[in-house]
Amino acid sequence: MKYKIAVIGLGYVGLPLAAAFSKKYTVLGYDNDSARVRELKSGIDRIDQFSKADLIQLHNFLNFSDNPESLSDYNTYIITVPTPVTPSKKPDLSFLMNASKTVGRYLKKGDTVIYESTVYPGCTEEDCVPVLEKTSGLKFNTDFFCGYSPERINPGDKINTLTQIKKVISGSTPKVTEKVDALYLSIIKAGTYKAPSIKVAEAAKAIENAQRDLNISFVNELALIFDRMQIDTHDVLEAAATKWNFLPFKPGLVGGHCISVDPYFLTHKAIELGYTPEVILSGRNVNNSIPQFVAAKVVDLMRQKEIYNKDAKALILGITFKENFNDIRNSKVPEIYKALEAEGLEVEVYDPLADPELVKKEYGISLTKAPRKYEAVILAVAHQVFLENGVRKYKNSNGAVLYDIKSSLDREVIDGRL
Ligand SMILES: NC(=O)c1ccc[n+]([C@@H]2O[C@H](COP(=O)([O-])OP(=O)(O)OC[C@H]3O[C@@H](n4cnc5c(N)ncnc54)[C@H](O)[C@@H]3O)[C@@H](O)[C@H]2O)c1
What we know:
single chain, alpha/beta, Rossmann fold, 13 helices, 12% strand, binds nicotinamide-adenine-dinucleotide
């Protein structure tokens, strides 16, 4: 069979995937954000995954469209749309449902729909398939088939790229599993892993991120405990790490659209099935409490130094959710910002990697272009540019507090770290 692939959703996941498949197959990149499609056609990738030259080169092989009708020429649909949570931490499936409706309208007999978005176990077959069936009028596993292959990329990571990461795949029938496997094997150099069912593949993705979230929550809780004991958490971790099976996690802010979101998909489904997870939700709660802890700690250190007053100013360095990258989704820095403001401080944020307009739109914070001197400086994101250019220069000469959330600075120059 000749694969004609349409990738639906050209974001962090969809664009590199469409690019990789376009080296071998006829591929359409479809996105319902017309501005995104216009930009991609003119060589602009607002999320900085591709350079202008690479994108223009790519456009020779890969068609971009915001017109759903162009989907009718394809037989394999790969859905890579966002799956965020609502403000009350419930899965927001609206993007997934809309994309399924769109694909359903163009689905033909023999077509395959593969989902890559992160979901809870059962979502593909219980939530998406009924939408595909309803909009297409076709019957699942008779007229059309499904696959699920979770994405594991870590945007910004130049080593573990799409084709270098083993890919879990699954299909709605044994024959489809083989077909989906052959398709991905043709581009994934690291190989594939055939999960026994779609549900297993969905669950595997959910627990990869939940496990990381929990491991970090454990060391974050240790940081809260050791602060009260007045011992440095990193000293303890370093000592414990001399044991062969101690896992090397560091405390920190857990933001972003994966680790801080995906566990809620799992807990949502568990609660729906009558079990309220205790461990997973406790871990989430601990991680969610860290911004408040950091803000209180900084104010405490300022009080100790007697520099806490109503005119005091604080600078937070970094707002992206990880270093050397521009993604600001679910950043925890705005929570530190608000908590410090509530303490009466005048707070500024400096991040040369983040898009100021997006930060303003998302969080209502105007990024500082030229930082001055402050009574408190908080390194929240260890961008290389901060480490290379130094951060001490932002300290006021009155013995300002320097707090290191990332434990990236020399011990001697800081007043505290998480
Ligand atoms: N970014 C990552 O590092 C990463 C890693 C692994 C898994 N994931 C998962 O992959 C999925 C996609 O994440 P992302 O980071 O690529 O999202 P993104 O926000 O970067 O991109 C999603 C794209 O989908 C488009 N879109 C939304 N609804 C659409 C629709 N109905 N039709 C067509 N296009 C539509 C948006 O305009 C956007 O361009 C999510 O489920 C996410 O959890 C992301």
